[in-house]
Amino acid sequence: VKLGTLKGKVVWITGASSGIGESLAYRLAADGCRLVLSARREERLQQIKQTIIDGGYSTQEDILIVPIDLLQFNSHPSTVQRVLQHFEKIDILVNNAGRSQRSLIEKCPMEVDREVLEINTLSPISLTKAVLPHFIERKAGHVVYTSSVAGKIGSPGLGSYACSKHAMQGWLDSLRIEMYTHNIHVTSVCPGPVFSEALVHAFTDSADQSLGVIMDPSERRMTSERCASLIAVAIANRLDEVWVSPHPELLYLYLFQYFPSIAKRLVQKKKIVDRSKLSLNMYLAYAVFLVYII
């Protein structure tokens, strides 16, 4: 663990108004980072900034609030310039903003597919491209992306979401190779179930309707604080890819990674798929799968 290396770094976090992004802001502020916090909810970002300042970790000048609608791709270059005018540099870009989805593929309209890809895939690609010239000029930089376990394996009820995360995994792998000679690092973080507002805002089979589900505190999920702490370790150590999840989801991921043929044959059995359809919850599907094979 090299968390001391983060002190003084300028870290730009998107999706910083709640969940993992908010917790990561607190964690990195405690590690001595200067922060750029972005999301659409400016008032909430200001509250987070004040909480950090009240905790004695940062001053007013150490935290820049930059409200942004990431779907406005044309605004990304000017937003980067705004950050550079304040801090004169960006050390780490954390593409954390995103939106989940719960709908069977056969019922999911193309409109939802398109919006999920724009939010989870095209917007972080666009923002990263806007920051890359600065990183290349400095011959230093670090791109971090909050992916998902769904970025490694598909799951019933999350077709569009899994597609968006898988696409980013491939893009990040290519970026990592291309940027190696420029001393630019790339980290993909794949969390499992984490307590957040993700299911409240998740897409359904209608682009105009969110799932609106509040997570049950009794569920087996990682806290956003714990997840953020592990992400900070991954950033400090410049790891290429990390899987951040409790069991049994982590075990499920290892099974798919190292025994893919066996895992796929088992998960494709009708019993598993049918029970997954009832909940449209990837984590319940994982649990059902593990109980079945054990």
From TrEMBL:
Xref: InterPro entries: NAD(P)-bd_dom_sf, Sc_DH/Rdtase_CS, SDR_fam, SDR_family_member_7
Family the entry assigns: Belongs to the short-chain dehydrogenases/reductases (SDR) family.
Name of the protein in its database record: Dehydrogenase/reductase SDR family member 7
One Pfam family it belongs to: adh_short
Cross-referenced Gene3D superfamilies: NAD(P)-binding Rossmann-like Domain (3.40.50.720)
SUPFAM superfamilies in the cross-refs: NAD(P)-binding Rossmann-fold domains
